[in-house]
Amino acid sequence: MYQFKGKEYPCCASLTMGIIGGKWKTVILFHLRDKALRYSELRKKMPTVTERTLSLQLKTLEDDGIIKRKVYTPKPPLKVEYSLTDLGKTLKPVVQSIADWGVFVVEEQGGPTV
Amino acid sequence: MYQFKGKEYPCCASLTMGIIGGKWKTVILFHLRDKALRYSELRKKMPTVTERTLSLQLKTLEDDGIIKRKVYTPKPPLKVEYSLTDLGKTLKPVVQSIADWGVFVVEEQGGPTV
DNA sequence: CGGGATCCGCCTAGATACTG
DNA sequence: CAGTATCTAGGCGGATCCCG
């Protein structure tokens, strides 16, 4: 049994998936892997996600201590940037290998435009 | 846009997650990472999964060409073994890094029994 | 032994409208 | 600009029973 943030997981692999699993979280982490991004910048990089879902996933990642949210303006219009925490940075190799495999598979079978 | 098995993904990372995402698939792949296992052996290693879900996830992974199913007996009681395909073996580094991070996190914060 | 069939609950995520 | 509120649906996964 593995535990993290009060949740229990039957396997070390499922713990990680509990944190970065779901349809969008790895995509968010992938885009934040080497620079902070504003909310609107993330939306541009993820055109098919809804505002609500993006917002929810960001909050979940923040609660899990993977990303941090920094507000720059005291009053609207707000400027908010998201970036990886130190813990989040330890996920970079994981996210990278996930992303690499996606590229690998597309290049292997079928190929993209090649 | 990335494609695999007729499905479209907005990001290379989401493609991979489309294949190994979900609550159980990485756990299955983790247990199959270096040896073939029977259905009942997988169940023992994953006590909290239901038969239906395990069966469903195995079939999905098989359809995606990640694992293969080999039947050894012509009549019941059946002996069936699951193992990684060549494509599935290319996922081993990904699954390994996912599993490693789970172990890392547990050791970092809180620690297990230590 | 290794599942398939059925039924169902819950959570994830989508659509849309609205606000500090 | 960066979200929140509400409502909804679809699918994942659980429980149970049954069959080759």
Describe this entry's structure for a reader.
The structure is a homodimer of 114-residue chains. Chain A has helices at 12-20, 25-31, 39-45, 51-63, 86-89, 92-108; strands at 2-4, 7-9, 37-38, 67-71, 80-84. Chain A is of the alpha+beta class and 114 residues long. The first copy, chain A, has a single domain (23-109), classed as Orthogonal Bundle (Arc Repressor Mutant, subunit A). The N and C termini of chain A lie far apart (46 Å). The model of chain A has no long low-confidence stretch (mean pLDDT 93). The interface between A and B is large, with 44 and 44 residues. The first copy, chain A, binds a DNA duplex (20 and 20 nucleotides) through helix 3 and helix 4.
How would you describe this structure in keywords?
homodimer; 114 residues; alpha+beta; Arc Repressor Mutant, subunit A; 5 strands; globular; DNA-binding
Can you summarize this structure?
The first copy, chain A, has 114 residues and is an alpha+beta fold. Helices cover 50% and strands 16% of the residues of chain A. The first copy, chain A, has a single domain (23-109), classed as Winged helix-like DNA-binding domain superfamily/Winged helix DNA-binding domain (Arc Repressor Mutant, subunit A), CATH 1.10.10.
